[in-house]
């Protein structure tokens, strides 16, 4: 897109300074190219979304391999950190069972 200087009518030249595009005239007039800025912002947003997508994938992997940790008093040693997960019991109409495993002594117990 060609733009002309509003001051003198000359053709504006595009120039980049510190990553920001400006339209510059030989008479000294200059304006920021907002279009480029928006484009840049959009690219940042796209990149962010991409990163967020990756984050979600990483989190899903975490769920598979590592159980979340909750505050639970271990009935064996009294430690108050346990990892927890749920398992569906054999018959589908029964509620799933929540398991806890003490992070300290590795004792596993369950709650219904
Ligand atoms: Zn000019
Ligand atoms: Zn324990």
* Domains, number: 2
Bound molecules: zinc ion
Q: Please give the number of β-strands.
A: 7
- What's the helical proportion of residues? 25-40%
Give the overall shape, derived from the CA principal axes. Answer: rod-shaped
Number of helices: 1
* Class from helix and strand fractions: alpha+beta
Distance between the termini: 68 Å
Strand content: 25-35%
**Unreliable spans:** none
Characterise this structure.
The chain has 112 residues and is an alpha+beta fold. It folds into two domains: 13-65; 69-111, Single Sheet (N-terminal domain of TfIIb). Helices cover 29% and strands 28% of the residues. It is built from one helix and seven strands, in the order βββαββββ. The strands form two sheets. A four-stranded antiparallel sheet has the order 4-5-6-7, with no helix packed on it. It has a three-stranded antiparallel sheet with strand order 1-2-3. The chain is rod-shaped. The chain starts with 12 loop residues before the first strand and ends with a strand. One zinc ion binds next to loops.
Question: Layout of SSEs?
Answer:
Layout: E1 13-17, E2 20-24, E3 30-32, H1 34-65, E4 69-70, E5 82-87, E6 97-102, E7 108-111
Antiparallel strand pairs: 1-2, 2-3, 4-5, 5-6, 6-7
One zinc ion is lined by residues 5, 7-8, 10, 25, 27, 29.
